[in-house]
Amino acid sequence: MKQSKITLSxxxxxxxxxxxIFGSFIEHLGRAVYGGIYxxxxxxxxxxxxxxxxxxxxxxxxxPVVRYPGGNFVSGYRWEDGVGPxxxxxxxxxxxxxTTEPNTFGTNEFMRxxxxxxxxxxxxxxxxxxxxDDARNLVEYCNHKSGTYYSDLRIAHGAKEPHDIKLxxxxxxxxxxxxxxxxxxxxxxxxxxxxxxxxxxxxPSIELVICGSSNSGMRSFGEWEATTLDIAYDNxxxxxxxxxxxxxxxxxxxxxxxxxxxxxxxxxVVCVCDYIKGKKHSKKQINLSFDEWNxxxxxxxxxxxxxSEAPHILEDVYDFSDALVVGLMLITLLKNxxxxxxxxxxxxxxxxxxxxxxxxxxAWAQTIFYPYLxxxxxxxxxxxxTLLDTGKHDTKxxxxxxxxxxxxxxxxxxxxxxxxxxxxDPEEDEALTVNLKDFAGYVPTQQIxxxxxxxxxxxxxDSQNVKPKTKTLSGVYDPMPVLRxxxxxxxxxxxxxx
Length: 498
Prior knowledge:
By secondary structure, this protein is of the alpha/beta class. The chain is built from 10 helices and 25 strands. The strands form 6 sheets. Strands 3-4-7-8-9-10-11-12 form an 8-stranded parallel beta barrel, surrounded by 6 helices.
């Protein structure tokens, strides 16, 4: 059995984890909304048309924030189409995904759904085909109490109290040629800056996310961030990052190493933010909103009827290997929680999602549901610098990849300590020694484990093959407990103070 060791101390703190790091994303895309969170007439639908079976799964995760309504969709969206009497709302050609948008679900429906799902909104504004004036009008509609045109319009639409949305995205992936209203960096930076000014003049309490590069592979990556931040630095609070990983070549060893690329991506964007901070002699720190991340490749190329309504598109069926990579990505986000303050697993239901549904039928948890659930439940508190001594290996694209990746989170209020760990080795167990250092009295109580499955094993509506198992640990204090990590496993090791 191979040996690894982590050393933990209350003094080795990365940051207090912002709970919004466990956020998600709902876009008007495929069946994320229609047939996902919203399906009037479904046996599990409530009086608002919200699927209660889906809400129950979301509440299990305890999702703190959900980004809406896009995504590529938002760059052509007229928010006014989705408010007011449903029977008066227009049907539109939706150009981002070549579908038809009925607009029967919009801003006020989403805000009612957020209350039912115990979450909050991260609202995106259209800076593609529209601009600053439309953005500030939407803030007024959502957040101003009353006595103005747009706030009174909201009241007339049945939402008496302001929605009080605190987190806003200034468009989506505006560096991408595929984006409606795509702009070069300087033009987008100026548009975002003007929108930010107007939006904060309407409501100074809001926080704003400027679009970073659509992914780290963009030719303009780095330069895009520097240019846009140089223009809008004083009026925004976060810069966005988007990243998806795939295993198209079937090289699972390399797939499991891709979280190393994620870590490098984050640190590079931090460097750009701090370069602009230094250039401006500013005391303000810009943090990161990793508001799209996941594994995505299974459903690419799926066919559907153009201009259909809520078609089955981008419905990845996730396997066990994907769950391990999602776990590794969550570990990486927690390791960088001093700068990553918001993160959204994309998406939440049906579209590259941890939750799947059948129209008129069941809802179920995909394999990636479980690492996300565990991180959200047990990853709140202080992320600790996890001094890790483990073997290393090389893959096709990466060198010195740790055999074990791990991070620990200490909840000082409940006096609980959680270690999240993935054993990347496909064949050998890993004996993980945990040096508790100054965590006197903390005892290991349980180990939640996702392990022992075929890498291609999946969950379906009728068969939940890939589920975690929980085993009880000794509950006896030992300053150097040793835990077994099975080959290719996601592990959640829980300690409590007695």
